[in-house]
Automatic annotation (TrEMBL):
<feature type="region of interest" description="Disordered">
    <location>
        <begin position="1"/>
        <end position="30"/>
    </location>
</feature>
<dbReference type="InterPro" id="IPR004244">
    <property type="entry name" value="Transposase_22"/>
</dbReference>
<protein>
    <recommendedName>
        <fullName>BZIP domain-containing protein</fullName>
    </recommendedName>
</protein>
<feature type="region of interest" description="Disordered">
    <location>
        <begin position="46"/>
        <end position="67"/>
    </location>
</feature>
<keyword id="KW-0175">Coiled coil</keyword>
<feature type="coiled-coil region">
    <location>
        <begin position="96"/>
        <end position="130"/>
    </location>
</feature>
<feature type="compositionally biased region" description="Low complexity">
    <location>
        <begin position="47"/>
        <end position="67"/>
    </location>
</feature>
Length: 205
């Protein structure tokens, strides 16, 4: 029992140590090196292939991203049109503000003019009423003055009973014709010179 116990390895680490001390034959070593080299080359090729695939995928993705980020012709034209529209809108807003300011100034001036016109209209209406009064007074004064002048004349003749309107537009010519018919014995008299003025006088009040 003891001999068998000493023949067995004490531990797994001992077995591993013994295994490390065992040399492999040359043919096995060469085959293992070749296997390692083939494995390394295949790993390198596969990794290179994977890198190329990933690079192509990355390049394709970046290309798609760049193509997405790069604006198209339609987008560029749309941006230009939007900028032009904003500029035109700002200019239009400025013009509208100027027009609104001018309209406000014109409205203020119109209000002032309306107030002044109201005052002027009131003054004109008062003057019109005064003119009507003065016109009546002036007519009365003219009638009185004419009557006074006629009374101061010499050899004034006053005829009654002559209907108004029979003389038409020429009172003097009508009276000369009437006098010639009324006084035929005075046919040689120069009525045109003697009769200087003929007029109607106002009725006696």
């Amino acid at each position: 029992m003891e001999a068998s116990n000493h023949a067995e390895p004490k531990s797994l680490s001992g077995d591993l140590e013994i295994g490390r001390n065992i040399k492999s034959p040359d043919w096995a070593k060469d085959g293992r090196d070749k296997f390692y080299s083939l494995t390394e080359e295949s790993d390198f090729v596969s990794s290179e292939h994977n890198l190329s695939e990933s690079g192509s995928s990355i390049s394709s993705e970046t290309g798609s991203i760049s193509s997405i980020n790069e604006p198209t012709e339609f987008q560029t034209e749309t941006r230009i049109e939007n900028r032009r529209a904003r500029v035109a809108t700002k200019r239009l807003q400025g013009s509208v503000r100027k027009v609104a300011k001018l309209c406000a100034e014109i409205e203020a001036k119109l209000n002032t003019m309306e107030e002044r016109m109201a005052v002027v209209e009131a003054d004109v209406e008062a003057l019109r009423e005064q003119c009507v009064t003065w016109d009546g007074q002036l007519t009365d004064i003219m009638w009185k003055l004419e009557d006074h002048e006629n009374r101061q004349r010499r050899n004034n003749l006053r005829f009654f009973g002559i209907n108004e309107g029979v003389e038409e537009s020429d009172t003097r010519a009508y009276m000369i014709k009437l006098l010639r018919g009324a006084f035929p014995e005075l046919a040689g008299w120069d009525w045109e010179t003697e009769v200087q003025r003929v007029h109607r006088f106002p009725a006696v009040r």
